[in-house]
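Think of the structure tokens as a kind of shorthand, similar to the way a musician reads notation: each symbol stands for something richer, in this case the local conformation of the backbone. In the example below we present two proteins back to back. Begin with the first one, reading the sequence and then the tokens, and try to describe in your own words what changes along the chain.
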Amino acid sequence: MMMYQERVATMCQWFDQWDVSGQMVALFKMVTRMHPTQARFLSIALESSLTECAELALREQEANNPGYIENLLNEPKDRAIEELLLHLPLLRPGNKEAKHKYMGVMPVLLNHCMDNNLYLDKVLQLLVYTLIHPALKEDRATFDLWRKSLEEKIKILNLGANPAVSSTEATDPAQGKVRRSNSLTPPFTVTPSNELWTSQDDLSVVRRSPCRRLSLSLSEGPPLSPQSSQASSGSGSETHLDDLRPGYEAVGMKDVRHWLKSLRLHKYSWLFSQLTYAQMLNLTEETFDATVEFVGTGTVTQGAQRKILLSISKLRDRYANLCHLEQEITEGSGRNLLSAMDEVKAVILTP
């Protein structure tokens, strides 16, 4: 009995040292290992303890109000990302209208934060919620690509990207420590926790045994690009690592050369031959020079750099644009269907 109490005390100490992301993942993994009866009892106990929390009730009402969520785009970006972190966990499964608003707001904020290297610790926390939230089950594959993109961005920044971004706040999810550089010389440092993501026993793994455990699939949902659907082939229950291998045979990179040729940028195909799909999507003005130096094969003119970055930003905006296009069509805003089909065809032809 004493040994059990000591172990529980140790686990509590570890738990208190983790940040919100680490705590959420740990709790989720433990709860999904419980028998359904135990899990239901835990749910009843938690619901009973929260009945007197008026603030939580108000926040849950806001979280399921489509108008409130849509209005977040009118808020300053730092406040908007904070509000998302507070409200997304309270989205009720089945609330399709509110979910649709979340799916319109989140890509905009994620793009802004990742393009400008802002609030990356909060972006990671948000992605944790998207990967385990039952209301977003059909979209997990897309958000998993966002998570991989974030990790690849961090890797590139740590190789020695523009040091001016080193003053951005950064968090190590495993330790929960926030670091701020007082100098412009050290590289940007955000270290995603390997404990959160890389294990085969982690969130991306599905073990379907409903009589013994409660489990959620994290490999479902539409891919970000046509080629990235290869990552979900096979058993459908494992985390595939092919999309992290650089080169034109990697997942998502198959059509990059054709895409570059259509943009008259094929002379710079050497730059993309050493990148993964996630690294390509995360190229920004701040990381471009460091990436070129890392590949170390040639040089890129300023004009070509601007054109490459503009084209990549359009790739990142595809999801938000398609959501907006869908909304225009379903709401009958007078959008010409032929022009809409042309836009969809143009997206299909991109990598």
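Once you have a description of the first chain, move to the second and do the same.
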Amino acid sequence: MNLNQVIVEWSKRTGKAIPEGVRFRNYATMEETANEVGWVGYPSFEECNSLWNEMSDVWNLEQYKETCIAKVSEMSFELRQRIYPDYKLMNASIGLYFAEETYNITRVCNEFREEFYRLKEAISSAKTIEEVNEIVATNKYSEIN
């Protein structure tokens, strides 16, 4: 993220126009540049800093969500393998087990899959890192057997 992205967001929120073609490298030179092009009413350092922090939090939240979704996916596979290792899934898929065993393997795999997609949807909808942590902590993987 850079100062220009912050200025564009500030403009969207306030409805104030930004001079066309002007690029800002940092706030220290922004005031000088604004004066050179006659831009009156540009955002203060405090406004830019506050908006920068807010935008950084959102960006960090999105990254954190992606990381946690990958984590719960990995958990799903690891915990399922403790119950039914991959070789049992392959054996079931080629018909080596009786119908009841194949049914149980399929049921367990589907339960892990459904729990992962429930968690993924909840994490994607979360508004804070704390909310993401709560969702991950309250997963129902341990109830699958």
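Compare your description with these statements about the second chain. Residues 72 and 116 are 7 Å apart (CA to CA).
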